[in-house]
Amino acid sequence: MPVSLLWAVDVFGRVYSLSTAGQLWEQCRDAQMEFKRVTAAQQCCWGIACDNSIYLNVHASDLPVRHQEDAYENQRWNPVGGFSDRLLPSDRWQWSDVTGLQHQLLDGVQLPSSSWEWEGDWYVDENFEGDPTEKGGWTYAMDFPATYTKDKKWNSCVRRRRWLRYRRYKAMDTWAKIPSQQTTLPDPFSDISCGGWEINEEPRGRLSLWAVSLQGKVWFREGICHHNPEGSSWEEVDVPGEVVQISCGPGDLVWAVLWEGQLIVREGVSRDCPKGTSWAVVESPNPEVGATHIAVGVNVAWAVTKDNKVWFRRGVNSHNPRGSGWISMVGEMIMINIGLNDQVWAIGCEDRAVYFRQGVTSSELSGKTWKAISVPRDGERSHSSASANSIQSAGCFFFGEVRDQSGGSDVESDVEKGSADGAFGLMAAPESSADAATNPSSDPPVEAPKPRIPKVTSDSFISELVSDQEPGKTSRDVGSAGPAVLEEEEAVSGEGDVKIPSAGAGRSPSQRAGAPDLQWSNVDLEEMQARHVQPAAGQDASDSCSLSSVATYTLAMEDPYGADEHPLWAWVSGGGCSVDSHTQLNWFICPLNTSSLHQSVQSLSLSMTPTQTAAWRKQIFEQLSERSKRELDNFKHYEQAVEQSVWVKKGAMQWWRDWKPHKWADVHFALEQFSGPEGYKDGILFIYYSHHEEKKYLHAFINEVTILVPVLNDSKHTFAIYTPERTKQRWPFRLAAATELEMHDWLALLSASCCDARGIHGPPTKQAIWSITCKGDIFVSEPAPALEAAPYPTPCDQMFWRQVGGHLRLVECNSLGIAWGIGYDHTAWLYTGGYGGGFFQGLSSSTDNIYTQTDVKSVYIYENQRWNPVTGYTSRGLPTDRFMWSDASGLHERTKTSAKPPSTQWTWVSDWAVDYSVSGGADKEGWQYAADFPASYHSYKTMKDFVRRRRWARKCKLTTTGPWQEIPPIPLSDVTILPCPSNSSVDTVPVWAISSKGDVLCRLGVTTLTPAGSSWLHVGTDQPFKSISIGAAGQVWAVARDGSAFYRGSVSAQNPAGDCWYHIPSPAKQKLKQVCVGRTSIYSVDENGNLWYRQGVAPSYPQGSSWEHISNNVRKVSVGPLDQVWIIADKVQGSHSLSCGTVCHRLGVHPFEPKGQSWDYGIGGGWEHITVRGNSMEPPRVFLP
């Protein structure tokens, strides 16, 4: 999981951030003033400073924040002078926006604020709908407005061209003030909250920012998105009363607190209306005590009342934003905040520490217990375990004056004893119960005064820090002071509260009168009492933990840093902190415990030197060698009793019958494996079935099996077994196990047997060919030297494929062993060099280089409707229509209740929601219209549209293991690695990628030792891209989302990002979707499945001259370092069936015939991706007579 930040503000207004991978609060050094509150998202953090202004801190990223400004120059044809700037009075402005209604001069386009800078000057856009225009970028039409074309016609009376200029946001990782509005300014703000990024993915980086003014008004910030992080303007939102605090969740939940203590909920928040439509009132959890604070997430709402009690709102979701009822929670807090995944942070009422709610999951949103975050702050001095700082880190605070030196030494020795026992916080405990029991004359417990920690409000929290202490303030009991050590079960049990004896116990009245104020921490009473009643042998009573000695010890006069070393927090925001139940956090590790453990390990490691270890190992090895030699020599003349071993594994399965009618039949499945005297292993598969009451069987030799692949099936746990003959028929053995676990056991066993029979073990080689199925399973094949040999190459249906753990959408590699993958959730992964993982265990998997991998994908269903002349569009279709709730094909019924994740390994992580990002677009409700089922759908309704559909999506998550490590933080949609020839020495390997938003990136610092690289370099483009490929000599080709192709010029080792893009015309009336570059060959695939070859490519003219059609029904293409061509093809005919997603190899490819001659069909169907860019193995030369 990528590293994210937790933000907090202390009572002095200093802003800190805590990384999920760190153990230190880091202060924002660039903050020029104190802050009151902050609210965070993943890409930025907003804050209110003490001048009541709004500030924005955008996190630095390898992807810059860029915005494209454009203006249109319009001209009309004149019979005398041709096209000129003189327009008719009824025409649009000479310089205008795209609509022509707004006057927009180039000099009139200004930067929004000082946080922006121009990247360059204005230039003409010479690209029109994916095709290059004539020189000058003019497009022509008959009149304004009309349909423009790039070609001038006889009736073209007007023309226009587009001017572009980019501006870049430069105030990264710094607090930038939001510019004031030109209109009437709202009054100063007292609270702020951001969220709403899950309402809609478009526009990119969209956020909802809500603010509350000092007068109780609510404001909404318009226009916040990726290319405009500051937003555009404030808009007031009507409220039923004066609001004091507001909270916005990642989705459509918005709650606020009124001055009277009531709560209001915003209703009607949607994709088209992020501000919502109305407010609904919700009563306070306790009618007698109003609410003071509210925090909402995706499906949760937490509240804090005026008595600092914490409440959880059950039943909250997008369909019912009000929820159903309140539940009282344990702990007393002053504020609370909800982060990603509905995780909860809070600030304690008594100690002002930041607490994290542990145990929050999707099934238990309320969590289990509070736990304090105990990590130091940036700039704090580190001390030894015997120092005063260690005492404070153990949970104690001391104030007052130093009475005598002996008191300090007593504390110091006691701390060392406490740290050795692991009992932190013991120094702040009262005298032992044993001493109290034997001292009947001791004074009764008297609660000692303690320093007053001011409650933070919007304006006065800094002034309260210097207010006088209240001598009458008494300490509370454990139930209200320590939420970190209490769980809800303890609160419900109904047991009486236990009072902690005060600092005055066991002291004279004179001592109590001058006693310093103490800050009590939470302690485990049972453990404390147990340690007090078991003093060490011979230990004097005065040596035990005495509170009187502790109370007289102080740091206020001796250490100027003492008063500030335990932070007092005022605000916390986890809106950008990505934490879930599986995240390993280092926020709760006490420095004392870590130091003690380190010293213990270090002392143990010193007991044996490396020289002694080496000698011991050598002695053991020599003894074993002598023993083995002696035993073998004594029995050489005996012949072997057993020459081979045989074992059989049987099971009951179902088999998809070969003959019609095809159906599942119950069979007995058996694997018989035997090993020879020299370690040779082989086996036979048997399928025993009955046909017309006659028992028959099918068999296959293990050394003939080419692949074992899980098959995506809704109702059965199915896998397929391929052999060369079955591959040609397009009809593998299809078997179904009773459970998914049983299927995985059989797959692991069969895969290990196949690898043993072929002598393949360990990780894939650097020359391996990688492929991925439509299910996301990863397979590798070790290419034979004769695979590309001419004229008789090895048939690709004889290639053996073995599975590698993990789950990916695509993978790319090269011959240096560098391999990158991209998941369905656009997360980038790096191959670590291991093998196995997933359901492969034991010897089938490497013990190291295996990591946890997650992936998220969407399950889609379609809601279909037909138009009725009376009622309009309804869910009642014709008898011949598709199901009203179906899959994409319409042949299978899929409802919200019947649709399931791909397998039991996947779990739902979201609810069903309308998907607006469908191909062809959708209207504001997500509908697409067509004349009939099935047809071409569009986003608008016409008179001939009698049917419509909309797509619903629900996300599910997979957690597995494999030899893959995550490469944060930018999500990618495509990646390419330079294909290197064999025995090549490349210092830095060029890696190019495209982000999920279409940005082109170049990875820096990629080597064989550091395959993950160091950082991303953004390469500017005028439009988003979707495919990219790099070939020999730094040839970089890319495909834009509009289907046009581009070539990157001047790419070299000295200039890894190149200079500029050259537009390459696409094939006639086609839009490209993928491009792949080899040594000299360039291939591309268009959206209609046509494969194209680029002719005329030469070192002097790398752009080539034209496209030549090679084949159709192609899904993906991969060109290797030797210009070998492999594809994933659809509609491949076999002797038994037709398959889609088949691996195919282009035959006859050589330097004089780079286009090849024919196709050799391999494994399939169901394949989605293949890459041969790592196979640089030169084929053997065959000389024909």
UniProtKB/TrEMBL annotation:
InterPro entries: Beta-propeller_rpt_TECPR (IPR006624), Peroxin/Ferlin (IPR006614), PH-like_dom_sf (IPR011993), PH_domain (IPR001849), TECPR1-like_DysF (IPR010482), Tectonin_beta-prop (IPR051513)
Ranges for domain PH: 647-757
Swiss-Prot/TrEMBL keywords: Autophagy, Cytoplasmic vesicle, Lipid-binding, Lysosome, Membrane, Repeat
Domain Peroxin/Ferlin: 64-125, 137-170, 854-915, 926-959
GO BP terms in the entry: autophagy
Chain intervals for the UniProt region annotation (Disordered): 431-514
Family: Belongs to the TECPR1 family.
Protein name: Tectonin beta-propeller repeat-containing protein 1
Organism: Kryptolebias marmoratus
